[in-house]
Each structure stands twice: as C-alpha cells, then as structure tokens.
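Repro case for the chain-ordering regression, as requested:
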Amino acid sequence: MSGISREDVAHLANLARISIPAEELGHYAKQLDAILNAVAVVSSLDTANVAAMSHPVPMTNVFREDIPGVSLTAEQALSGAPAVEDDKFRVPRILDEE
Amino acid sequence: MTEATMNYDEAISKFDPVLGLEVHVELGTNTKMFCGCSTVFGAAPNTQVCPVCLGLPGALPTLNKIGVESAIRIGLALNCEIAEWCRFARKNYFYPDMPKNFQTSQYDEPIAFEGYLDVEIDTDEGRKTFRVPIERAHMEEDTGKNSHVGGATGRIHGADYSLVDYNRAGIPLIEIVTKPITGTGKYAPEVAKAYVAALRDILRGLGVSDVKMEQGSLRCDVNLSLRETPESKLGTRSETKNVNSLRSVERAVRYEVTRHAARLAAGEQIVQETRHWHEDTGISTSGRPKSDAEDYRYFPEPDLLPIAPSREWVEELRAALPENPAVRRARLVADWGLSEIDMNTVINSGALDLIVEAVDAGVDPAAARKWWTGELARIANDRAIELEELPVLPSHLKRLEELIAAGSLNDKLARQALEGVIAGEGDIDAIVAARGLAVVSDDGALLAAIDEALAADPAVAETIKSGKLAAAGSVVGAVMKATRGQADAARVRELLFEKLGVSE
Amino acid sequence: MSDLIKKDASELAALVASGEVSAVEVTQAHLDRIAAVDGAVHAFLHVDTEGALASAAAVDVKVKASEKLSVLAGVPLGLKDILATNGLPTTCGSKVLDGWIPPYDATVVTKLRDAGIVILGKTNMDEFAMGSSTEHSAFGPTHNPWDLARIPGGSGGGSSACVSSFEAPLAIGTDTGGSIRQPAAVTGSVGVKPTYGGVSRYGIVALASSLDQAGPCARNVLDTAMLHSIIAGHDSMDSTSINSPVPDVIAAAKRADIKGMKVGIIKELSGEGYQAGVRSRFEESVALIEGLGAEVVEVTCPSFPAALAAYYLILPSEASSNLAKFDGIRFGNRVGDDGTKSVEQVMSETRAAGFGPEVTRRIILGTYALSAGYYDAYYGQAQKVRTLIKQDFDAAFAKVDVLISPTAPTTAFKIGEKLDDPLAMYLNDVATIPVNMAGLPGMSLPIGLAPEDNLPVGLQIIAPAMADDRLYNVGAAIERELLAKWGGPILGLAPELAGA
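-- result from build under test --
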C-alpha cells in the first residue's frame, strides 16, 4: 500500500464533508501514513480460510412487529434544530441533485 | 436547450438498445422499516418521527418483520432465489434528506436474486412473450422530503434554501433491479412499459403496496444504452428519473434511444449521467453532473443482525402466494372463452375476483360477468361505493340464474330481487315471495291483459295487421306496465300476433 | 467533609433504605464534594443540582411510604456524557454537540432513574470516546485525583475520576477498546465492560457499533456488581442486545471463591515491555491467585499482536459512518450559514469547526479504509483478524475459566506527554482491545501502586461471553485478599484533594 498524499487527504475530507485547511493537509497525510504503516500488519496474517466476523453476537432474525409505537412531537423533533421554518428543518441551498 | 434526436425507426435500424429498469416499491406496512413510527400518509410535518428515523445520536434501528416478509414474497413472485443468510449494509453519502447521512440498504447480499418476469407485448408478428431477467430485490429505507424555497420553479436550481420533513424518512422500500435487458430491438419501449405494468399487477396482487406511480409508491428509473449490434460490447448508459407513469416509461425509453442515436451518429460520446424526464415536453434533461464519482463505502450494518429466512418459512410464504395475475388472466380468458376486450372490461370494473368467486360457487361465467360488470357495477357506481361492499353473494346469483332458467323470473324481475338483497330484505326466495316477483306466464292472464291494451288503443290492431309489426311494441309495453313488468314480454308478443293472425 | 462520601454504594443504599440517612443528605454531601474538588479534577461537564436533589427527594418519599426500592436507590452517580439524557446537555466531549439537549433518554438512563439512582451530572470524556487520556475533550482534560498533573485515562476519564475522587460512589462509562478498564486501572478504581450485547446501546452515541458497550464503574467489586445488575438486560430497542437472563453478578461478587479455578495468563499480554511496576504488581497478583487455590497456566493467543492494528481499522471505519450525522442540519451547532453558502459547504465548515484533530484523523482514516479498492485490504481484512482473535479466546477458554493480564502497559502518564504521538497513545489499549474485538466481558481491578511512581496499577480479568459473573467472583476474591493486605482500600492512599 502506497502512502497517503495531501491530495488523498483532500479527497477524503471532501467525501467526509470536513473542510481541512490546505496548510494542515500535509500534517494529516503524514500522521495517517504512519498509522497505515502500523496497521498494515493485518495483511501479514493468514486469513485465507477465515470468514470475516459478522457480529460479535451469534444471533439472527431479530424482528419487530409491525405495530405503531410512540413518535416524538414536532416540537421535540425540532427542539435541537439550528433553523426551523413551517415546522420543517431549514437548510442552506442544496447544490447536488439526488 | 433541447438536444438533437434521430428518427426512432432510423435509430433502431442503426443501433441495438439495451434496457435496465430499477423500480422502487413503497411498502404499505403500518410502521417504518427500522422504527415504530406510523406510515399514514399526509401527517403534519415532522410528527411521524422518532430518534431512530430522525437520526438522533444514540438511536438504533429495529427491523420490521412485515418488511422482511414482503421482500421475500416479492422475490418469490418474481421467481427469485431467497437468500439463506443476508445482511443490511450502510450506503454512506451526505444529503439533507438523509438523517444519518447513510442509507440502511443491502449491498452484496440482497434478500432475493436471480429471478425473471415474463411480459407480453404486441408485435408485428402478433402477441409475444418476453422474459425480463431480474438481478435482485432488496430492502432499504426511504429518505425525508425536501421542498425548495425561493427558486422560480420550486425545484433545486436557483432555490435560496430548502425545508426538510422527515415523516417519510425510513418508510420501507423494496428495490427491484433487472439485469441488462437485451434482444428487445425496436420493442424496447413496449417491453419496458409492459414490465412495469406487470410488476405493478403482481405487487398489487400480493397486497404489499398500493403501487400508485403518480403518488410515488411505485417509482421507476429507466436506464438505456445503445450498441452497434447485439454482438457489440455494451454502450455507455444514461439513467432517467422522474418517470411517473406507464406512459412516461414508454416515452422515456423511446426518447433516450433517439437521443443516444443522434449523439453516437454525430461521433459524440454518451455522458454517463442521471437525467430528469419531463412528461409535459416529452424530453429528458441533464441533471447536474456529480462532482465526485460517488464512493458509497458500503460495509455491513453492525446495528442489525443477519436475516436467515428458514426454508420452512419461505415455502410457507410461497404456498400462500396468489396466482401470478397475468397467468391467471390468461387462464380465465381461456376457461371462460372471453375476448381480450371483454377481459379488459372485467379488469377495469374491478370485478375479476368477485366473478371468479361466483364461478367457483357454480355460477355460469357469462352470467357472473353480466351481473357484476352490468347491474351491480351500475348500482355501486351510483352509490359511490366499491363493488366489494355490496352484500351480494355467489349464492344469490346462483339462485337468480336458476329462477331465470326456470322461467319464473326475467332479467327485470331479477334486478328487483337484487335490489332487495342489497336492501337487506333477506335471501332471493324470501324476497321473491315477499315482493310477489314472478313472471306471469299464464296465457289466460296474458290474453286478458292484451285485450285490455287493445281496447285502450283501437287503432293499433289495424296498424299491426297492416304490416307495421313494430307497433306491437306499444301493446307489449302496456301489458308489461299492467303486469308490473312480470309478464314474459316474448310470450306476450307471440300471443298478440297469434290473436291478430299475424306472423313475424 | 462529610464521611458519607467515603462510604461504599452498598452502605449508602442501606442507610437510605433504613431511613437512617436521607437520600437528599447523601446527594447534598456529594454535590458539596464536587463543588470542593471538581475545579481541580474537572470530572464533570455538567452538574444537575436541581434534578439530582429532586430525584433524591423522590426516593425519600418512597422510603417513608415503605415502598420497595432497588438495591441502589438513593445512591448518586456520574454519567459519561455519551449517554443521551432527556433534558440534560449531552456533548460527547465535542463542540459539535455543545448545547444539544436530547429529547429522549438512553435505555440505561431510564433503568438508572427507575432504580432511584441519583444522576449528579455528566462526566468528561475524550471527544466521541476517541482517546485514552481524556485530553481530547473539547472542554479541557480531566485530572487524575492521584496526581492532578496526570491523565485519568480515557476515553472515560471523567467517570473514573469522579469515582476515585469520591465525587460519587458510582459512575457509568462506555468501553470500545478499554475506555472503562484503562481509566479504572490508572485511577485505582474498578471498571467492567460487560459482554457485548449485555447492556443496551440504545441512546449511547455510537463510536464503533460492533465494539461499544456501557458498563459500571465504582470503588469496589460489590458496588460494581450491583450497578451492573441494574443496567444489564435485554432491550427490544437494541437489536444487538442479548436475549438471555443477566448472570447473577451480585451473588458471584459475594461468593468470592476461586478455589479449583483455572486462570490463564495470555503470553502475548503478559507484560513484556510494560512499565516495571506494572509487571511486578501483576506477578504478585498471580502469586496471590495461586495462594487462593486457583491454578495458573500460560496460554497463547498468536493473533493478539495484530489486534491493535485491526481495531484501528475497524473503529475509524465504523466511526466515520456513525459520525456522519453530525452535520448541523437537525441538531447541534451549525457553522458558516450566512445565507449564501450551500448546504455542502455549511456541513463541511460545521464539521471542521466542531470536530477536534483526533476525531478528524480517525474519520479520514476510516473513510480511506472503507473506500472502493481499499475495503478488502483494510476493513475486510480487519474483520477476519477479529475472527482469529475470537478463535484464540475460544481455544484459551477451553483450557481455563478466566484469563488475566495487566490492564494497561503503564501507570497514569503526564498530561501532554503523548498528545503529539497518536500511535503512542493507541498503545495504551493494547491489552484491553482484544476483549472488545471478541465481544467478551472484562474487568479492571486495582492491585496496588507501582513502586517507582506510587500510581495505581490494574489487573484485567477476562471471562467467556455471557459469563460476566465469573469476573465478579474472581475480582471479589482477589480484592478481599488485597484489602486484608493493605488494611483498607487503595484509594485510602490517594492524596487529599485541595479544597476538600
């Protein structure tokens, strides 16, 4: 695995929606590179015949009945919102279409 | 700016279309996929939310059992294999209508996969069956709804800000994805439409969704690419969204074929993008290009445990599946000897199940059809109620037909008897007795009534005798009136002509 | 200073239940203690004076009415600020949640309230539980009551410091890679991470969903067991919670008999390279355990050297997804919304302003490890290593009843000492991480002070899944011996805090 570059960090920061100032990109790249080198040891283990652990609890089929429960009131739901209008969450203009 | 298009026939002569259809079904469960919030439509904004579907820190999902059951049933109805063990996965991306900024979905372990759906289309060579290969059906959750404020059109472009309502966030969705559909040739639009229509019928028959395209409980994305020949490599595809009706499905496919063809013929590349269909103008427009090829960083959802449907459960569900609607229709058309037009009438009146019920109980198919698509449909319509709400049972129809065959009731009297059933007056025999409904077949009584009618209208006898047989109608009418409709009109006419010495 | 604060939780509960002391008096004594020393310790981010006294008063009403009470009714407690509390601030030690007041309670909180336990307030932590020193809190570090210039451990340093400074006899922490056990070790208190799924995670802000567990902190094994019994149990709101009866941990703590048990030392976690005083105290514990009639053998777990690496791939990956919801849209602070910027920009600015460097580092790392093209080598591979770790534990438990190791490689280090070296910081959890990776229960028990610095050392005890009671049996047996040897609890040797 090759090292992490500043450009990589910038790309990842964009994917993660965290704006990192240009002057900090190199610092993060270096730290992350060191961590990645340290964790590279996982690839040295023989896992050819090993299944990935799915869950620490060996359970399956945990279901809930389709019966309505208690919801929050609009007031509770909006109580932490930074901006509210017409009982909806107000957000800045959206650029990306979905 | 409208893009160039090539004439469809020319496009088809030059290129081979490959289709892909993605359909999202909103399930009609009582609660959301991962929490117990109600799913009832039309609630005030942000009143059907909880820490889970609002994505509040610390909240955890719990899986709706009917969501899983519906997914399995849909998979079985589409001839899919049902996974022995599968999980949910997180699809990670940021968008304001996504409370967690990841969607809980399924990635490489869908609950149903490798299926097919046979659809019928009309071709130049007559009716043909086409097998649409289905890649997978999987479970996921819907997003909240954004409304955009400040722009001219109410859409995203040019809006100043947006408002988000999370009531629909977490509504259960099943996504059904076809494999690339090849070999349709010029019938690509028809195949696409027929597939969505057939899928809708199946889903409706399963009772898992109200599948209303115009309301968004059935959504279709159309993917299309062109290639030189069926042996060529697949071309670049475009995806078109906002296809909100069967008609739009067909038109969007047709349009994309013409648009791709024009570009390719002009030596231009197809842009792999998501486009927006406009039903009013009949074109698709380019969506805003995505800034980054989106990397969803899928990984198995740690907060939900694997689903391992037992084979017993799957077989139980399979055994309880309703018959595939298309298969059933074809069988009934054959059994009942109907024309396509007649069957369409049956379907459109919503009477199919009621007719089948009656036929199963021994009523003649033609008679069952006659009553349910005729008089009973009229009554239901007048009262603005559903056919199913009429308290008319197969046994009622059976008895009516028996009495008609025996000659003691005619159609008009039978209708009166039905009225009585609907009014709750009892069963057919009780009503007939109480209302004194009986065809008057006693010739003596009929002749007496004929004499009265002739006496009241002296000229008519001469008119009939002079050859104007149609004038008999007024005499028959008078007799029917006098007998309160209980005379056998045909017999009255016979006796009248006999009396006057006229033959038909 | 009232000597109520020096009493065990079990004692306080008995005094309250008998009516000899009112719950209000007990709570007030602890509030006074907080007022006196927390300026120096900084264990608490928020003290709910009004709410605590009201809860206490409600318990007193029940006592007067002779109503049935839980085993810990009226006893005060500090709650790690990662649990959602309806009406009380919940920051997770982060600016991004500064001022957020949840509209709901975590299941654990509901259980505590129902048991009449008095929640004094929310305790400090490394931001979003990422850390081993509580230095990554956005609101300033917590100071170790043994030496205020040193770290109290992390991420739950506030909870362990609150207990070891006698601000409360009980605390709740969460443990993803050691965040209950390591702080317990460096503060001379007891901390337990239950079997994964043993305690509901509903309402606990998620760090790494497949590793997180809430657990009890106290100054002795019995108190810890009593708290464990109250918070554990199946919760239908948490799909990963175990649907089995909770093992009788209180009875086990009272049994305290390990004669005939087989105890295993994990070769790979036996202290090689650890601080000398840590090793010597550990070796003494081994001798003590043998003296109690247990057989000590060595087992080997060859995958454990890779556990740290695998953990630091799994945790950031899951965390990068869990922390995506902090975007300033529905709750928390929003930064940069001046009416002109796009939501994409505002999200990015909000998160940049709200997250500290360690959180940012781990989110970027996790985003990378899950990326297309890297998933198999990193996250995928790490999940396979997890299976190997579980297999090694299973093989070990086929031979022994419990496993032991030192809890942490060193005693409490100085504040600031490891802050610039993330990798050095990660090494604090080398012994605790494998336990979370396998979903097993683990305890840290104080076993003395390191001679070279007179700072507490902890012993880690590990049991098979769902055998949490074994921890309490073994822990209580060792504790009884040590109490006899020391003439009293180790915390009696901690320096008096100024202002006390």
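Ordering looks correct now. Residues 435 and 442 of chain C are 7 Å apart (CA to CA).
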